[in-house]
Amino acid sequence: MRLAADVLSPTLTVSRRFAASPERLFDAWFDPKAVGAWLFATPDGVSRHVEIDARVGGGFAVHEQRGETLATHFGEYLEILRPRRIVFSFATERQGGSTVVMVDIEPDGAGSLLTLTHELDPEWTPRSAGIRAGWMGILEGLARTTGEAGNGHTLVLNRTFEAPRILVWKAWTEAEHMMRWLCPAGFTVLFAEVDLRIGGKWRSGMRSPDGNEYIAGGEYLEIDRPSRLVLTHIWERNDLEPRANTEIIVTLNERDGKTDMVFIQSGLGTRESAASHKWGWTGAFDNLARLATSLKES
């Protein structure tokens, strides 16, 4: 397996404290049944097949059904030192280029501190926020697998729009544009309110095809026009979802007149809620794609 990572590769580091012992954390990386439940798992995915050959030179294969797509993840173990360190290559194609992931575990009081370092392919740098959130979500899954309640579920979505990012930014931050996209497929936006400043509030309502009304709102935490927006999200009216105060991060990168968006929503109360939000946001982003194109053409 060819490694794309080298000394010039950008690195991404995430850490998390766990209640579990180093030995329990370490062993969870090599238990096929456990791995299928948390490693590369998504809210609405179904684990299909996990292979693990736990030796240096051995490897893993993790397959998850995501709708009509079979998502694949492969790796080769480069270093295994129980219970302190695991190093492996990582790729989404068996014969494709791969990067390197290092997992270091140390005792921390009655529990453990896990630090994960991922040497990224330089081409992945624009998506580093989403990759970081993905690993944090994976570690939350590991916490639940080892007996903790965890801190909620994380949803990461990537989308490319056929418009410059200033137009996508406007769609996210101007009420007149939010009225045209901020709802799932088949729904209707009722209103949108924006006070775009740190500590300012946003609020929006929508109506479902069967006539039910839902209202959400939150507060702006970070505003870096036109590349990054951080806000809270909580349902004021929604009898289908648990009332969880979640955080949304939107990162916009322009590439050849197009906009690559990384969307992250963290703190979702249940896996079912994360899957429901994925469905809702996917439909909303279809609306946003049409709006961005129309804004570009106008």
UniProtKB/TrEMBL annotation:
It comes from the Bacteria. Gene3D superfamilies: 3.30.530.20. Residues 20-145, 163-291 form the Activator of Hsp90 ATPase homologue 1/2-like C-terminal domain. InterPro entries: ASHA1/2-like_C, START-like_dom_sf. Belongs to the AHA1 family. This is Activator of Hsp90 ATPase 1 family protein. It comes from Methylocella tundrae. The lineage of its organism: Bacteria, Pseudomonadati, Pseudomonadota, Alphaproteobacteria, Hyphomicrobiales.
